[in-house]
Amino acid sequence: MVQLIGRNLGNRYEMIEIIGTGGMAVVYKGRDLVLNRLVAIKVLKEEFSLDEDFVKKFQHESQAAASLSHPNIVNVFDVGFSEDVHYIVMELVNGNTLREYLNKMQGFMKEEAIINIGLQIASALSQAHENEIVHRDIKSQNILINENGSVKVADFGIARAATTATIVNTKEVIGSVHYASPEQARGGFVDARSDIYSLGILLYELATKALPFEGDSPVTIALKQIKDALPNPQVINTEISDGLASIIHKCAEKTPSERYQSINELIEDLKVLRTDKHFIVQDQLYMNQGTTILPKITEEELMAHQTVKRTPISKAPLPPSNNKGPQRNKLNITLVILAALVMAMLFFGVFAMNKFKSIFEVDTVTVPLLIDNHVDDAVRTLADLGLKADITERRMHNSVPEDHVISQSYPEGDKLKEGFTIKLVISTGGIQSIVPNVKQQTLTEATIMIKNDGFEQGEVTNEFNELPEGMIISQTPKAGIKMPQGTKIDLVVSKGPEVKTFMVPSLENKTIRESEVALNVLGLKLGEISYEDHETIEKGMVISNARVGEEVVQGTTIDILVSNGPVEETTEPTTEATTSEISSEQRLSVAINTRKFAQDTETIKIEMIQGGIVTTVYEKVHSKSEGDEILIQRVVRGSGSARIVVYYGNVIELEQTIEF
User: Fold this and answer.
1) How many domains does one find in the chain?
2) Which of 32, 137, 155, 191 is the catalytic position?
3) In Å, what is the CA distance from 284 to each residue of 199, 243, 258?
4) At what angle do helices 263-275 and 192-208 cross, to 10 degrees?
């Protein structure tokens, strides 16, 4: 066999490991590299890939299964052919087969569980049969139980689209012999009732943990399927009810006409049994309206039923009469009276018929289009026209909303008499899934998550937001609620922060705090604060700021120059020594530890105190995002010694003395 593990099929599906082997194919666990999800990949065995008949059956499987959508049927995602490999990509069901589940079970399965599993399998078959598909291989190995306990019918490997009545297979008998119907074992006519037989055998297996017919060879088992009556499951499991035993027997009748004639009949009986433990199936023979062979009639039976001849009554001869005139007149009068009576009766009959017809004559109405209407509106529309609505049938549908009409039994435009009933099929909505949370994901990631959960990407709009460009801001419908698969999820994607421009104002004669507030209102930030002496602007007020009148983007930092006030005059005589001392310089270096900030940002101020004079040599807002340590360097002038004070906000963090 060609080694497929590690290969990519169709440049999309990575083959990981073998998880199962069937009669025609090998099943691998794989990964869909596009949608980033695990899948099951069924690959046709190498020895069959050159056989046209087997390839055709394999293609039938994919076409049949892909046309079905039901919560109890394994989903088919893709079908392909790559490098001489035919494959089908399916939903990966985490769990066990029903056979494995039975093998692990201690004791017998409870009847409620048998009914529940039977209903789920029957529901899946109902969907298939409505689409004219016969599974033809119902067995415990083809029934999967996922981690949530739900049933999934798998492997439509030998299913074929049915014609209006039956399927004929003259070349070989297809299906597992332990579950095959008598007609299937003979290689004869096969229809939906064959699936019902196989399901009956499966229900027997669930009830008893054993198969009803065993043998040394497949031929022996097939002959027992054809000839032997089904054993009573109550002999093995005395806990099951008479009702369940009767349902199993009716499913597994040898003659198709004596079984359930549709899977929906079986579903109804299982539902009744679930609520009524005394329910027992009544025997009913379904006869086709075909030719009937009559029994041969014997001579004795014929003689016994011959008609007896009546003996004539003897009368005395009438005497001859010579007077015929009066008799003839009487006869003529009688005939006239009779004719008049007949005419009167005819006239009255015609009159009465016309009257009768006018009384019971019913008007006709035109059937309206009701598809996609809400069920209440559809019923009201029909009632207004004098028609009745049958809304008992409900069906799952991904594209028609819940409680809306999927189909109607009579098309738009048909003429019907008042009082006629129109059958409406009502949607129960699609398969429900939980809407995923895609907020703060990229658009690509969100699209993959949405498709993985069975939804569709809806309208995508873009808005400015603090989130980085390309990230999802919001979604509709919101995450965490159940919605039908196929629902479109609308997304709002971030365009990044909106870039706004502002004209830088003049901050002259404002305090540092007032300047910071004025800049923040415009979305600007206070930058570096420098100081110098000024004759007219008082100490602590802004002398000027950078970029006045310019248009700058939001977040730009603006540096300011703050007044130290006028230069103080001294009356002390200036000497060469003092001049030398005043003019000396010192390079100041201060390390700022941002981990000590009380908040994310902090105003750092450095003051120099000398001879009772306080001079601010540095003031600026810093952030933790600048790093754990910020080195501030400044050149200061003075003489002798001076004290340096460092503020974190309003708190003194550091004091030191420097010498000039």
Assistant:
1) 5
2) 137
3) 19, 15, 7
4) 30
How far is 165 from 132, CA to CA, in rounded Å?
Answer: 9
The residue type of 520 is: N
Asked whether residue 455 is domain-assigned, the answer is: yes
User: Nearest-CA neighbor of 53 among 12, 81, 24, 92?
Assistant: 24
Q: Which two tokens stand for residue 507?
A: 């901050």
86 located within any domain: yes
Please indicate, yes or no, if residue 156 is contained in any of the structural domains.
yes
- Which residues have CB under 8 Å from 438's CB, separation 6+? 445, 446, 449, 450, 472, 475, 479, 489, 491
| Same domain, yes or no: 444 and 457 | yes
Distance CA 357, CA 380 (A): 30
Peptide bond preceding 477 in cis form (omega within 30 of 0): yes
pLDDT in tens, 112-157: 999 999 999 999 999 989 888 888 889 999 999 987 778 999 876 5
CATH of the domain at 146: 1.10.510.10
- CB count within 10 Å of CB 251 equals 27
Burial group, residue 597, by CB count within 10 angstroms (0-12, 13-18, 19+)? middle
Which of 651-660's residues contact partners 24+ apart within 8 Å by CB, and which partners?
653/596, 654/590, 658/586, 658/588, 659/586, 660/581, 660/584, 660/585, 660/586
Q: Write down the mean pLDDT value for the chain.
A: 81
Is residue 219 assigned to a domain? Answer: yes
pLDDT tens across 198-230, in order? 999 999 999 999 999 998 888 889 899 888 999
Q: What is this structure's pTM?
A: 0.45
Task: Clarify whether residues 531 and 595 are in a common domain.
Answer: yes
Same domain, 402 and 509: no
**Does one domain contain both 530 and 394?**
no
> What is the rounded distance in angstroms from the CA atom of residue 62 to the CA atom of residue 133?
12
- Are residue 30 and residue 121 in the same domain, yes or no? no
| Alpha helix (H) residue ranges in 483-575 | 512-521
Total residues found in the chain within this entry: 660
SS3 56: helix
Q: Do 112 and 200 share a domain, yes or no?
A: yes
Provide the CATH number for the domain around residue 79: 3.30.200.20
By C-alpha distance, which of 170, 171, 175, 172 is closest to 189?
A: 170
At 374-426, the pLDDT tens digits run 999 999 999 999 999 999 888 777 778 889 999 898 888 888 888 889 999 89
H or E element in which residue 635 lies: strand 629-637
Alpha carbon 63 to its chain centroid, in Å, reads: 21
Judgement on whether residues 65 and 182 belong to the same structural domain of the protein: no
Are residues 20 and 121 both part of a single domain? Answer: no
Inter-CA distances, 76 with 4, 67, 88, 155, 433, Å: 20, 9, 7, 10, 17
Do 159 and 135 touch, CB atoms closer than 8 A?
yes
Q: Which domain holds residue 631?
A: 501-568+578-659
Measured CA to CA, the distance from residue 348 to residue 553 in angstroms comes to 104
pLDDT digits (tens, 9 = 90+) for 560-587: 999 988 876 554 544 444 444 455 788 8
- Give yes or no: 137 in active site: yes
Task: Identify the band that residue 362 occupies on the pLDDT scale cut at 50, 70 and 90.
Answer: low
Domain's final residue, options 275, 304, 332: 275
Which CATH number characterizes residue 396's domain? 3.30.10.20
Of these ranges, 116-130, 288-302, 635-649, the one predicted with the greatest mean pLDDT is 116-130
Burial class (CB in 10 A: 0-12, 13-18, 19+), 525: middle
